[in-house]
Design goal:
The chain is of the alpha+beta class. It contains five helices and six strands. The chain has helices at about 30-35, 145-170, 180-190, 195-205, 210-225, and strands at about 5-10, 20-25, 45-50, 90-105, 110-125, 130-135. The chain has a five-stranded mixed β-barrel with strand order 1-3-4-5-6. Strand 5 and strand 6 (about 130-135) form a beta hairpin. It is globular, with a radius of gyration of 19 Å. This is LON peptidase substrate-binding domain-containing protein. It comes from Streptomyces virginiae (Streptomyces cinnamonensis).
Length: about 240
């Protein structure tokens, strides 16, 4: 088992390998993380792990509020995640490589990272200025029939795109879609309008073929649902929404 220890960045979203993640860093715990990453040489990857939050707050509460007006604000690397942070996170996440880390005058950061490798969360350490985690890198097995399934998923995804465009009353751009099964599986998982539990199930699929088979079912179901909806949000196929941390 290959393990690695990296800074941990929990988000209210799922990051997939190959997908771009823009971040707007303003909390001190994540500023500290970025300052640490900047110590890494520019010719080396500046890596951290992203996990989706199962139960907790992406941004820690900063002031008393309802129902308890006298409550003290939560502080520290695990703020918003409870006494045992690992229980607040989904156990499969993705390593991110920060290609751009730009510090602003006010000490906040603008970060642009890309997902690289799936990992399983083994333990979480909250003793430092930011969360760190021991992680097991997960293999990327093809499974049976991944190539044929990828072709079916691409056809279903194009139909899904057409339905989305129709619901938004706008035309599609003629973007070229990849045909490599693993890339197809992650692109579709990221681009489909699905909730976090559904995207998480796709991320942690045991192999590419299983992920593609599940996507084929989801796309057919979602395409049928879209026929009855008047409008839907626009979707960027390669970029997640910017996280405010």
């Amino acid at each position: 088992m290959t393990t690695v220890r990296l800074p941990l960045f929990p988000l209210n979203s799922v990051l997939f390998p190959g997908l771009v993640l823009p971040l707007n860093i303003f909390e001190e715990r994540y500023r500290a993380m970025m300052r640490e990453l900047l110590k890494t040489g520019e010719d080396e990857p500046r890596r951290f792990a992203v996990v989706a939050i199962r139960d907790g707050r992406e941004v820690a509460p900063t002031a008393p509020g309802l129902p308890d007006q006298t409550a003290l604000p939560e502080r520290g690397p695990a703020a918003g995640f409870g006494p045992d942070p690992i229980q607040a996170f989904h156990r499969v996440g993705c390593i991110a490589d920060a290609a751009t880390v730009r510090e602003r005058e006010d000490g906040s950061f603008e970060v642009l990272a890309t997902g690289t490798t799936r990992v399983r969360l083994i333990s979480v350490d909250s003793s430092g200025p930011f969360l760190t985690a021991e992680l097991e890198e997960l293999p990327e097995d093809a499974g049976d029939g991944a190539g044929v399934l990828a072709e079916g998923v691409l056809r279903a995804f194009r139909n899904y795109q057409k339905r989305l465009a129709g619901a938004r009353e706008r035309s599609l751009t003629g973007a070229e879609l990849p045909d490599e099964p693993s890339v197809v599986s992650y692109l579709v998982a990221a681009a489909a309008v699905l909730d976090i539990p559904a995207k998480q199930r796709l991320l942690q699929a045991p192999d590419i073929a299983t992920r593609l088979a599940e996507e084929l079912k989801l796309l057919r179901t979602e395409t049928a649902v879209i026929r009855h909806l008047p409008s839907l949000p626009a979707v960027d196929l390669t970029r997640a929404p910017t996280s405010p941390n």
